[in-house]
Amino acid sequence: MTLTKLNFITGNQNKLADVRAILGNVVEVDNQAVDISEIQGTIEEIAEEKARRAAEVINGPVLVEDSALEFSALKGLPGPYIKYFLDSLGLEGLNKMLDGFEDRTAEAGAIVRPRGPTGFGWDPIFEYDGRATFAEMKQEEKNLISHGYKALVKLQQWLAEGQE
Ligand SMILES: O=c1[nH]c(=O)c2ncn([C@@H]3O[C@H](COP(=O)(O)OP(=O)(O)OP(=O)(O)O)[C@@H](O)[C@H]3O)c2[nH]1
Ligand SMILES: [Mg+2]
Q1: What atom in ligand 1 is closest to the CA of residue 65?
Q2: ipTM, 2 dp
Q3: What angle do CA 109, 8, 117 make, to 5 degrees?
Q4: Is there a common fold for 5-66+142-160 and 69-137?
Q5: Atom of ligand 1 minimally distant from the CA of 33
């Protein structure tokens, strides 16, 4: 069976743009904004349950994305709860959380004072290679190295292998 269309469930337009940019030449990416409540747990548990709930609401196959930002000094926190930390504390507040620590690394980069356009979530404070933040990169550049890209490459492989 060849899947030609995927229904990506998100209300986040930045996520949608990234997923379309990465997957768009392989499958058509439809979008529905359904607010799915997120459980607490490991990133795997949260993503799995989010997909299950979205599929129930849509009554069909879905693609969902759930991301985490793990600070090494905080033993992986905020992790999957980054969205709520970002909403409450902002980019400067996230930086302040690390000011008492020498280790400012996050999986897999460093947290820095905001640089570049503020558009997508924490992109301006995530420095990838000791040089540019995600926000300072062109979308094409970020989408060759980002966590979302790596996950979607795996999805592409799975689709190419016939979804076994
Ligand atoms: O600067 C960023 N660059 C990225 O590459 C990126 N990927 C995710 N995020 C943000 O991290 C939180 C995850 O929460 P999340 O995965 O539950 O997403 P969400 O609730 O926004 O969307 P969705 O659940 O409707 O799909 C949300 O604040 C997202 O905006 C990113 N921010
Ligand atoms: Mg969410």
Answers
A1: 26
A2: 0.94
A3: 40
A4: yes
A5: 25
How close is the Cα of 15 to the center of ligand 1, in Å? 7
Domain ranges, ordered by start, for the chain: 5-66+142-160, 69-137
Q: Using a 6 Å cutoff on CB, does residue 134 contact ligand 1?
A: yes
Interval between CA 1 and ligand 1 midpoint (Å): 31
- 100-156 confidence digits (pLDDT tens): 999 999 998 999 999 999 989 999 999 999 999 999 999 999 999 999 999 999 998
3-state secondary structure of 46: helix
Q: What is the CATH number of domain 69-137?
A: 3.90.950.10
The reported pTM is 0.92
Confirm or reject CATH 3.30.70.260 for domain 5-66+142-160, answering yes or no. Answer: no
Ligand 1 atom with the smallest distance to the CA of 66 is 16
- Amino acid identity for residue 115 in this structure: R
CA dist., res. 120 & res. 135, Å (int): 8
Paired tokens of 104: 């400012």
Question: Any idea which ligand is nearest the CA of 80?
Answer: 1
